[in-house]
Amino acid sequence: MNLEHNMSRQLDHVKPSVMMNYNAEVAQIEDVIRLTVGEPDFNTPKHIKEVAMQAIKANESHYTTPQGNPKLRQAMANFLAKHYDAHYNAEDEILVTVGASEAIYDSLTAILNEGDEVIVPTPIFPQYAPIIEANGGIVKFLDTTEDDFILKPEKLDQMIEASNGKVKAIILNYPSNPTGVTYSREELNALVQVFKKHELFVISDEIYSELTYGIDHVSMGELLKEQTILINGLSKSHAMTGWRVGMVAAPKEIMKKISLVHKLSVVTAPTFIQITAIEALEAGEFDAQDMKKAYVKRRDYLIQALTDLGFEIKLPTGAFYLFAKLPKQVNQNGYAFALDLAYQAKVAFSPGEAFFGHDNYVRISYAASLSQLEEAVSRVSKYLAKLS
Hints:
Layout: H1 18-26, E1 33-34, H2 46-57, H3 70-84, E2 94-97, H4 99-111, E3 117-122, H5 128-134, E4 138-143, H6 153-162, E5 167-173, H7 185-197, E6 201-205, H8 220-223, E7 228-233, E8 246-249, H9 252-265, H10 271-282, H11 288-308, E9 312-313, E10 321-325, H12 334-345, E11 347-348, E12 350-351, E13 361-365, H13 370-387
Parallel strand pairs: 1-11, 3-4, 3-5, 5-6, 6-7
Antiparallel strand pairs: 2-8, 7-8, 9-10, 10-13, 12-13
């Protein structure tokens, strides 16, 4: 008996991941320097790990409430209020999720009906589009390349008006993966004026909010709480990617549906990790500061070195990525270039194609030591010299 033809037709629309295919191939290359990684190269702070071990020894291994440990939800609410002036009721407006990835999935699943359109400014993190499509939604890409990777309100308004009421939501991700670009208060306020004109959700993924350079992060949770589904977590701010601590903040009535999806999928995030997350938010409130200093040093080195080699780069003011346009002497698209570079020079950059339609770009992560970055630049320089 063959039951394949009876499986979900929505999943047929989900295309294979360019990023996963590329990473799987370059992972087989010996001695390759992988500047593709989307996680801090720092270890989780010691005080956080110690609390985790204490929680395990204390047998904190039983179910907690699906919404999340009440003390953790309060710590999350306090964090958002103190850092970003975004005020949420811990009891019914905060949800603890298994990473920001689950938060994204829960949020989109909770709001989408078949045929709903979601505007996705590109280049952008690859995960949003397949989740939209798996839920029967339609992805409407809006390219920001010509505007220095900043979404312009007039272009956004034009796309919404042209949809004849089909747009259900827009995705914001700032500081951005892959560009590292973030928004000023003035730029966000201009977008808010457009959002207020239309009955739509703003899914604001602010997972890199603690990693900004020379600019303060402004949250959509402050500017437009009533329409915003705010996503954040501890992966980037506390070097806790593998711990999987995410959060959703949203108005009470919206949160009811998001919480329902969460309960149906994972029930609750792991108990001892939630206790550990309280320590991270309360005692490790500013754990990201030392990481930020290192990232700025690495960013500035790479921008100068790669610009000298012919790459064109918009200065990133957040996260830990450069989104670099290929030098003029490169006659390949980003994927072919990235693959050839990995095999020939033993340096792996993420192809821009993975972030939707930017095939003459590569994403470069500087979540790597300065010595690794220097060696990578040396190898890239020799590779480009051979091309010339």
